[in-house]
Amino acid sequence: MRLDFLGNTVSTDRDATLAAVDDFVEGILAYETRAENIVGAAEADPESCLANAYAGILWMQLEAPDAPQRAARYLSASERQATGASEREQWTTAFLRAWSDDDVPRALEIAERIETGYPTDLAIAKLHQYLDFNRGDFPAMLRTALRVRDANKDVAYIHGMTAFAYEQCHLLDEA
Question: Does this model's pTM top 0.90?
Fold first, then answer.
């Protein structure tokens, strides 16, 4: 097992896959286009459960009617590799499955489970906030940030995630 830049295990022995996982995670957190590098990594490493799950998640963020169709091949690859992957990677695959099936409440439950067991998985926490933002549930965004904040005090992204959620709640109070 290798570790991503946040200290989460990644089931791969390929340097390029690990680099793409880091690009995806930090790209999601920083709103940077390097997150898209995960698609090439998933293509090059079809045995990587996590790279394929993340590639599918990236397609789901299209917010387009054909997003689940575009994510399907990566979801399928991730599900095929899930039995040999870590628990966190298996839950990430389940998160993608639920989101692809348009079962957002289930996706949110899975995200919370991941955050509780693996609070340094800020990619899932950010995606949880993303789904809650789209639902207009700003207090849930704040709960997510607070759930993982203590485990990530030295990570700048958590402070932005928390501040944005507080701001959204404050704007809701003013409305």
Answer: yes
